[in-house]
Amino acid sequence: MAAVAKGVLTGIVVLAFLAVIAVAAGVGVVVVAFLGGVLHTFLG
Fold first, then answer.
1. How far apart are CA 14 and CA 4, in angstroms?
2. At 1, is the pLDDT very low, low, confident or very high (cuts 50, 70, 90)?
3. pLDDT for the residue numbered 44
4. How many whole angstroms separate alpha carbon 22 and alpha carbon 29?
5. How far is CA 9 from CA 2, 12, 17, in A?
6. H-only helix segments in 1-44
7. What is the distance between the alpha carbons of residues 2 and 18, in angstroms, rounded to a whole number?
8. What number of CA atoms fall less than 13 Å from residue 44's CA on the CB side?
9. What are phi and psi of 3, to 5 degrees?
10. Where are the transmembrane segments (predicted)?
11. What is the rounded CA–CA span in Å between residue 23 and residue 11?
């Protein structure tokens, strides 16, 4: 049972890590798009 519990915990940690990376990537894309829009507006 300990091995199963460890496997489940490892899976949860990996999924959480991937979720954090996905959120960070999404935020990064939004920020870059926003800054790009601002620069485009100012530089016209």
1. 15
2. confident
3. 76
4. 11
5. 10, 5, 12
6. 2-43
7. 24
8. 0
9. -65, -40
10. 12-39
11. 18
> In whole angstroms, what is the distance from residue 34 CA to residue 25 CA?
14
* CA 5 to centroid of chain Cα atoms: 26
Each residue's pLDDT tens digit, 27-39: 999 999 999 999 9
pTM of the model: 0.62
Rounded CA separation 44/38 (Å): 10
- Tokens 């926003």 — which residue? 34
